[in-house]
Amino acid sequence: MIEVRIADITTLEIDVIVNAANEGLLGGGGVDGAIHRAAGPALSDACRAIGHCPTGSAVLTEAFRLPAKAVIHTVGPIWTGGSAGEAVLLASCYRASFELARAHGFGSIAFPAISTGIYGYPPALAAGIAIDSMQRYTAAFDRIVACCFSAADAELYERRLEEC
Ligand code: AR6
């Protein structure tokens, strides 16, 4: 079951929320900044202890003050026009996050629209990859939330789901 929601991902009561991080795991703006603010400073310490995450991969930390049980930090590709392997890397973010959540026995997971903010990935293209990736894991999870920050993004996800 894929649920499209318009929400601040930091408020969700779910096993895992996914963060759109950077390779240095240093925190930043966008959803990353919101997650770090809501989780508290212990999250930065946990990220610093891990140190690095390559683009397309994912790492897991505790969620500290967040209602979620854990945070998966994945690093989306920076959009540079589409011919630098961005689509493969974005799909890899979703797959790596699902696999990590599954390896830890989590049954519910929420994703923001990875790479579509500061990293500039065109939202419609990213929505297609997100929904296709999520559909591969519907049998393995009780709940998958596509957490959008705007009605326009939610519309893209809903449209893609209807096409499937
Ligand atoms: N809840 C859900 N979605 C959100 C929230 C929120 N609280 N805040 C923003 N979004 P972005 P990226 C949406 O820029 O493009 C950071 O500095 C936002 O509207 O957060 O992967 C990192 O450290 C957009 O749809 O992530 C990296 O350096 C989506 O989340 C870099 O930005 C992703 O936008 C990563 O850039």
Q: Summed up, what is this model?
A:
The chain has five helices and six strands, in the order E-E-H-H-E-E-H-E-H-E-H. By secondary structure, the protein is α/β, with parallel strands linked by helices.
Summary tags:
5 helices; 6 strands; alpha/beta; globular; binds ligand AR6; about 160 residues; about 40% helix
Largest sheet: 6 strands, mixed
Termini, distance in Å? 13 Å
Assign a percent range to the helix content: 25-40%
Helical/strand content category: alpha/beta
General shape: globular
Strand portion: 15-25%
- Mean pLDDT across the residues is 98
Secondary-structure element pattern, one letter each: EEHHEEHEHEH
Oligomer: single chain
Output the strand order for the largest sheet.
Answer: 1-6-5-2-4-3
